[in-house]
Amino acid sequence: MSKSNRSSSSGTQASVFDLNGVPSFGKAFPLALQHVVAMIVGCVTPAIIVAGVANLNDTDRIILIQAALFVSAFSTLLQLFPFIRCKQFQLGSALPVMLGISFAYVPSMQAIAESFDIGTILGAQIVGGVVAIVVGIAVKKIRVLFPPIITGTVVFTIGLSLYPTAINYMAGGTSSPLYGSWKNWVVALFTLAVVTGLNHFTKGFLKLASILVGIIAGYIMAACFGLVDLSQLQSAGYFQLPQPLHFSIHFEPSACIAIGTLFAINSIQAIGDFSATTIGSMNREPEDRELQGGILMYGISNILGALFAGLPTATYSQNVGIVTTTKVINRFVLGLAAVILMIAGFVPKFSALLTTIPQCVLGGATISVFASIAMTGIKLIMRQKMNFRNTAIVGLSVALGMGITQAPGALATFPDWVTMIFGKSPVVVATLTAILLNVILPKNETEE
Predict the structure, then answer these.
(1) Which of 85, 211, 382, 410 has its CA 20 to 30 A from that of 251?
(2) Strand pairing report for 313-315 and 99-101
């Protein structure tokens, strides 16, 4: 009998190192809190960024952040505990993974929010969820189109495209009258120094919570500089249920294509997180039904999440890192972490508090995250031999993706939908170019 099933069959409390069963609350709670600390900042920051671009009022900003927490929680629970499960098929991976709002979609969401509204993002997300379901059904056949050289190029481009956002935030935010002031830069660099110091000179909880601790430290300094506005905190309530369809749902073809392309890529990227989880913590490859069920539920949960105003989610690599490092694979532990997130999502006061974080603090904390995303892309790229062919794929894809978006007038004579798909977010151009070149260029090409 396997270790994961032995404890549940004997009627005793499960170990936190067992996949199934319920361990004691005293052991599970601190481990669950560890996962919450590692992901909560990353979970709400995309919502804060998009809310700023869309110029939402205080009430709508709070609702968007609440939805980010709630949707991340129930998406995680649906992955952890499949409600349809048999020997050949299941709906959900049933693996110890956490899902949260993804930075991968931020560049495209920013472009959509500038030209349209939040409802258009959510409509595109529903289409993206359908794309993910299609990928899940045909994962074995489609997977060949996305080798590490492709996914790595996309992830690298995402990281690069987020750098201007981080720098603008460090300077105080382009909408702020204090944009570029020395106060913003002092606070931002102090926050970055705290995050970097904790990452490289500490271990355990402090290293794990480096971004959270950095934001707290930066927040205190910003308050001393008079950069914190608590006025919106006073009007926020103590309890509020999610508000379905608050932002409505709008379908714009160009936005759907941009987000749908990213969903295809992230569906394949999720395979990497599922595989890293099982290989690193269970010494085995994920089963076909786990991969397929995980991707299918990824699509379904994003469709449901859009109805509750939750932005697109993805598996969180930092939580995969915790699982593979600690070997704590018990699904109850991660489920408890999701419940904590969900409870936080019911408290508008908490969401309102998050909206008071100055942009310079967020910029100082998240630039290291964006740098990490870019370096993850490089690691994926380097998993394949960097011969002349692969170098051309990466170089041309990134050059076209970043180049077109940094030359605003490059597509000035094209229809608006062309600009929306190809001119606003470098990720779409880089993705399509990389896939096309990987199919066209001969694979027996050798360097001189």
Answers:
(1) 410
(2) antiparallel
Q: What's the rounded mean pLDDT across residues 318-332?
A: 78
Bridge partners of 85, per DSSP, are: 90
pLDDT digits (tens, 9 = 90+) for 225-267: 888 877 777 766 778 888 888 899 999 998 999 899 889 888 8
| CA-CA-CA-CA dihedral for 374, 377, 381, 383, to nearest 10 | 120
Q: Does residue 373 carry a pLDDT above 50?
A: yes
Q: 129 by DSSP, 3-state: which? A: helix
**272: pLDDT confidence band, cut at 50, 70 and 90?**
confident
Could you identify the residue written with the tokens 């990281």? 159
- Please report, in angstroms and rounded to a whole number, the separation of the first and last CA atoms in the chain: 56
Distance, CA of 340 to CA of 342 (rounded, Å): 5
Per-residue tokens: 7: 């404890």
In angstroms, the CA 164 to CA 258 distance is: 20
Nearest to 275 by CA among 266, 265, 288: 288
For residue 372, the model assigns a pLDDT of 78
The region that residue 117 occupies, defined by phi over 0 for left and psi between -120 and 50 for alpha, beta otherwise, is beta
What percent of the chain is helix, strand and coil (3-state, nearest 5)?
70, 0, 30
Beta-bridge partners for 100: 314
Phi first, then psi, for residue 313 (nearest 5°) are -105, 170
| CA–CA separation, 48 and 26 (whole Å) | 33
Predicted TM-score (pTM) of the model is 0.77
